Amino acid sequence: MAEESQKWVLMVTAQTPTNIAVIKYWGKRDENLILAINDSISVTLDPAHLCTTTTVAVSPAFNQDRMWLNGKEISLSGGRYQNCLREIRARANDVEDEKRGIKITKNDWENLHVHIASYNNFPTAAGLASSAAGFACLVYSLAKLMNVQEDNGKLSAIARQGSGSACRSLYGGFVKWVMGKEENGSDSVAIQLVDEKHWDELVIIIAVVSSRQKETSSTSGMLETVETSALIEHRAKEVVPKRIIQMEEAIQKRDFATFTHLTCADSNQFHAVCLDTSPPIFYMNDTSHRIISCVEKWNRSEGTPQVAYTFDAGPNAVLIARNRTSAALLLQRLLFHFPPNSETDLNSYVIGDKSILKDAGIPEIKDVEALPPPPEIKDKVPVQKCKGEISYFICTRPGRGPVLISDESQALLNPDTGLPK
Ligand code: DP6
């Protein structure tokens, strides 16, 4: 293996997007392999605004596998990490760097240790599917480091064993996780339905809702639902299979009305099965409900839907607008109902693709104060303003799948020591 010098460090850096489900995964038929009780469909979010970057390194000088998340060392002893590491190592191949005189044979990988450093470009605590991007990036970068010759579909089945939703982050655009039938999970993989260019008018606005409440994790929440809810079986067997077919067609045809109808209904049904769990699980809060009302009212008044909403295991809203024009009109409504606190400036209140703010004619904070009530609420109930209920908005769009980062300066590990920079 390492001839003259034992000091070399070989590294790979990759970037992987996060995703948001429009037909939800909720419930497992195998807890260890992470096999779902229904298919699900997601949209991949632009990694420019939400992604995980991971550097993995190997060196004969390392004496154990180690990992750092956002600069802090974390334990790799959990079953999910161990399953991913084992599955990737089992598929490793020869690797040679002639220039540096490094040669690793297939069998060497069993005895070599890795260092992993991972960083999210969005707050982990915001509850924005950080585990999906995280496990997808871990598996993708290790596969590249170890010269694993499998396609992204096969890699998705490994990422799935880290976190179910992670398998869908191996592709850009719209992605389906096929639940599969096999007991060993070999056919429970992600497939790309369309790439990110297929429906590129869509604009996505995420409302990060302020919340003090500690939420039930997806893992334990879905286990409790499967054990106690009578509705979940009906959902998985009768409702979702039909919705999957309709959703695939809506995506192929860029049929926004059907897409919105299915996305909102599926989010609402997911939260209904949470409420049907004993004890009930509440992921959405009053702010989430207010956002739903605002969107429903506007869609209704327009006649044709302008925006779809979906909520995961937390109060944050993911709003998918049909195009830039409706995204700008949506942002006006959101800022009217949910203005920032007096100490927050607009620049940190709306992040990501800020050009939507310009489209909405709101370049400055004084423009927020001057926003008129949206026409659909005029002359009805007194206008309600909810300052401070939203932490910030992220403007983004559908995005691409994982990529390798060749620029060494972006690596998170030091190329000489293999320790975090
Ligand atoms: C509500 O993938 O986080 O976001 O497989 O136990 O790690 P584990 O759960 P996770 O669950 C995601 C649930 C969801 C819906 C979805 O992403 O499809």
Would you mind describing this structure in some detail?
Belongs to the diphosphomevalonate decarboxylase family. Its EC number is 4.1.1.33. It is a single chain. With 421 residues, the protein is α+β, with helices and mostly antiparallel strands. The chain folds into two domains: 10-196 and 405-410, Ribosomal Protein S5, domain 2 (2-Layer Sandwich), CATH 3.30.230.10; 203-396, GHMP kinase, C-terminal domain (Alpha-Beta Plaits, 2-Layer Sandwich). It has eleven helices and 19 strands. It has helices spanning 79-89, 130-145, 152-159, 218-228, 231-253, 256-275, 286-302, 324-337, 346-349, 355-359, 365-369, and strands at residues 10-17, 19-23, 28-30, 35-36, 40-44, 51-59, 66-69, 72-74, 95-97, 102-104, 113-120, 174-177, 190-194, 203-209, 307-310, 317-321, 350-352, 390-396, 403-404. The strands form five sheets. A six-stranded mixed sheet has the order 8-7-11-6-1-19. It has a five-stranded mixed sheet with strand order 15-16-14-18-17. Strand 3 (28-30) and strand 4 (35-36) form a beta hairpin. Helix 1 (79-89) runs parallel beside helix 2. The model has no long low-confidence stretch (mean pLDDT 94). Ligand DP6 is lined by residues 21, 24-26, 34, 40, 131, 163-165, 218-219, 312-313.
